[in-house]
Design brief:
Number of domains: 1
Shape: globular
Radius of gyration: 16 Å
CATH architecture: 3-Layer(aba) Sandwich
Helix content: 40-55%
Bound molecules: adenosine-5'-triphosphate, magnesium ion
Amino acid sequence: MTYKIAMVAQKGGVGKSTLARIIAVEAAKGGLQTKIADLDTQQTTSVNWAARRAENGITPDIRAEAFNSIETALKDADNFDLYIFDGAPHSSRETQKVCHVVDMVIIPTSEGLDDLQPSVVLANNLLKAGISAKKIAFALCITSDSEREILGARDYLAQTPYTVLAGEIPFRSSFKTAMDKGKAITETSFPTLRKKADTMAQNIIDAVAIAAKMEVA
Ligand SMILES: Nc1ncnc2c1ncn2[C@@H]1O[C@H](COP(=O)(O)OP(=O)(O)OP(=O)(O)O)[C@@H](O)[C@H]1O
Ligand SMILES: [Mg+2]
């Protein structure tokens, strides 16, 4: 069986590819056959990142390929244990389509209302389109260091029927530097930051495993 997960958002630049990469790397380290399906055929940022990773000799190797058709990607998914759809910058009909076929949908969002509101609108639209609230989760990404703001965001999201993952990924230039070298942010050399990224990766992997089991049951 293939676990499938999608990173989607209403806005661009919110952390979809960053999360796709930590999941791919951490699951691969755990021995799972993993691949990223890059749905951004214009930028192919995850494909380019995987190429940088290979050029720099970073292991484990991560497979990534661009797809403009969910159907073609799904045929490919059968060959893997974990298949990660890295969504295009803005939500579209393809976004809804991919959300129907995955076990878990992750919506990265920062803590300001400018980010929270469109994130909740997207989740509500997915719910209206028939996607179970149980398989939609928000992940706080590219956040500030204000605990008060982050708690406020958690309170806001707690009023929705969706999961809010524990932990958050703060804005740090060293995360950007790590990804520039083809690393995932769980592979940064700063232990405290690595721990934050690890926690998020683990929470997402746990969430997809639980959601997949619920679907099977
Ligand atoms: N926690 C962070 N700290 C600093 N920079 C970050 C962090 N997370 C992501 N970035 C940077 O922010 C930018 C957007 O992140 P990312 O590519 O993951 O978002 P995205 O949602 O996939 O964007 P797009 O919609 O363009 O596909 C990238 O340049 C990335 O390197
Ligand atoms: Mg991206």
